[in-house]
Amino acid sequence: MPEKHLYEYAVIRVLPAVEREEFLNVGIVLFCKKQKFIQMRYDLNELKLQAFSKDCDVAQLKQNLEAFEKIARGDSSGGTIAMMDVPSRFRWLTAVRSSMIQTSRPTPGLCDDLEKTVQRLFDELVL
Known about the structure:
Order of helices and strands: EEEHHHEEH
Largest sheet: 5 strands, antiparallel
Number of helices: 4
Low-confidence stretches: none
Structural class: alpha+beta
Strand content: 25-35%
Distance between the termini: 31 Å
Helix content: 25-40%
């Protein structure tokens, strides 16, 4: 029987007009402490985004999502936060914020394959 991995994930959301509290799911970040695993995936559907807000700065939003991805990967170009350990990076990415990019509360789960689980959650909750 394959080993089960305890993981946490959060949905990455874009709120084009924060004050309206309407959001579009654009990504997933999944973390497993025991495996020192963190992965972030995103897909920004610009047509859906334009339905929420015609004034959204898509280029800036893409830069911010790329920064999230660099932090998750531990890429040195992601700055000081990207150099933190995996649990600290996940906690930073999922911290409550009032910006245009927010995450859901982390949700736990069990799986035998973390990569497949990231893809499944991404397919179900984002695409």
